[in-house]
Amino acid sequence: MGAIDIIKSQADAQHGSGEAQAELIPSVTSVGPHQSGESPVLSFNAKTLCVQVTITQAHCAKSLDPPADLVASARDKMLELVKSGQAVLFTIHHDRLEQAWTKLRSLELKDDSKESQRSITVRLATGAPKLPGLRISPPHTSDSMASLSISAVAKEVVGWRLDWLALHVARDLLLRGIKDQPNLTQIHGALVRARYGQVVEEIQLKCAQIFPPNDRQQSRLAINPARHEVSLVVFDLDAVSDVSLVETRLARIEQTIDKLPGSKANYVILKDELLESVETALSGPESLGIGLPLILLVAVDPITKIRISAAPKAKRNIQPHGDIPHLNFAIAADRLLATVDEFTPGASQDISRLSQAWLNGEMQRAGIVHGIRDGVLEEIRAQVAKNAEPKGILVAMGTPASAGKDPYLHTIITQDQYGTTEVSDTGGPQAQQRRALVKAGQLVGEVRYGTPPTTGKDVAGAELAPPPGEGLPNADIGEGIERRGSERFYAGCAGILEFDAAGALVLTKILVHEGDANFSSGDIAFDGPVEIKGNIESGANVKVKGDLIVRGEISGGRVECGGNITVDRGIVLGPYGSVRAKGDIKADFIENSTVTCYGSVSVVRSIMQSRVMTGGAIITTGPSSLIGGGTYICGNLLRTHNLGLPKGSKTEVSAGVNFRAEFSMRLRQKRLDMLILSCEEDRRAFKKIMETPAPKLSKLEKRAKDELRDRVSRWKSILDSARQHLYLVTATLNYDSAACLQILGKLSVNCQIRVGGNNIPIVGEVISVLVTANEQDGSFLQPLIAGKAKPAGKSARNGR
For residue 716, what is the enclosing H or E element? Predict the structure, then answer.
């Protein structure tokens, strides 16, 4: 049921009735403007006094929210019923419509054909007529919500509907400040008994039962022996989707009833009502999982009198006017003030009868329980002693609610289909630098307050919601963010949520690639973030300017990313693949790959036989993680559990250096080494051919002799140029003296380490060690944990 607002209906206004009628807001819709297939279809059922709307996936795909005129049309229809006297109160189920709209919108729309469009029917508004003979009064027990009595004859009650009766109960509870939902099956049982002619007198209504979700059961029976009622709790509609299954369930219910105490012959199976409820649920929001579990009354004993849980009549707070003094109270419209409105003296005008217990009973009867003033009884007795009317004496003052102050924008990123979480709670872009992937329509931000709003409480003890705060009229909201109302912000599309350079919250649209990216799927190039719901395989070329998220692994291809790369599994590229990123790279493992990034590389398990170059750190986070074999260049930090392969290939590490300059130097050094080797081979070949007498040389050897003489004469200039290039690159190298290696486990001897420009030979295996760029106590290796000893007999001194 939607939010409830209490007003006096037009029918009451015309007849001058003093009894307030409840309009359970919001709205109604006329059938006219929405008959085409392009818009949701509205219909009105004159028998049930309800307005329904049928919506499809295609309708929901066109907008984030349902059309506002749906609710307006439904409200107009309900007001028309009130004006004509057909209804005295109504409710609008706008929250239910919004939930169904959002859920249906989130489902994948395969094509535009009608066959592929899922549709549901949502009850948008429900009206209720006047129900003569219905009386709802305050409860007699502390664990009850209200007392329900039906004095109408059976032939009149037969035409009543359950939703009408429930609407009247909800109206009465709201008038007394109670927002909890009553037990609908208990109301249904009372209605069935009244239809069978039983006098329903002061049944104590309880709160709605709560059945937690059950993964193991699609449905279960709930039996209330005291009320002679059997209910079916449906957690999954598959349990009742087949009529034959329902028939089987009803047969089992009859078997269960046979075992119940009392007269089993009196039980009535509500088959028709059950099937109607199931049919409505299968075509309604319940089919999307909204409003589950369903709690349906399926059997009741309408004949056997049930014991009414109530206090003895002698102890009730409703007193006869003839003998006991009586008070009526006036409660302000905002329900924050209660005053004496009328005093009726008893037959014996003895002032001693005006006791505190009497006053407490009168206030309890009127539902006044909060903010009661001290000294009220004395003021009333003083007025009565003077034969004066105590009208206007202030009895109780509620606690007003207060609005929040000092508003700020708080980002909200909940766990969603993309698996991204949380942003800081402190407000402001400086504290909220994390980026996150969000889906279309997701709540991403809201206005919060440095001084939070406070709830109030009226004289009936009901909580009062805080009034709206100041809001943020000039909130820093950028492209892709939609503002709904004054305090909530939603993502207009799927994308990356972040703060831009100006501090505004913006959303960058994301491209989602379903399945693997490979030679068959074609290249992927996108000017923004990309999510690949599969693997990147050999033959694929992926080039994105935003962040890249890979839900599988990268097993080949060439990947270039202008932001961060996140890989759910591993990176195994082989000799022909490469991965480059301007941000960070995160993966489960890296093996036999070439990886380059300007940020940091973080893996969970291991990095093996790879060439990894970063501008930041190289980190493995697993408890037994390993970096071994290959070349690793990082800007400041390498942290792992184990470094090196004791019986495998060499592991080269260079920390505290610009990886681009370091890599360029290594390439030029490698080229120079190859040139020197080629020069030496040419010199040896030329020397050998010069030692052979000219007459013995063949034509080919003579031609080779001339070519070797020419190449040998040019080798000096070639080597000098290569050495000059190497010198220039080496001169540009800058080292970070704060760089270090943190080895939490074992550092193997088969490692070549350079930190901050210093070569650090490892002469023996060590454990839990910190390798720094600066010597301390004559060594570059320091215990990582205080008191951790180096291996006995092993020296860890290092040279430059």
Answer: helix 699-731
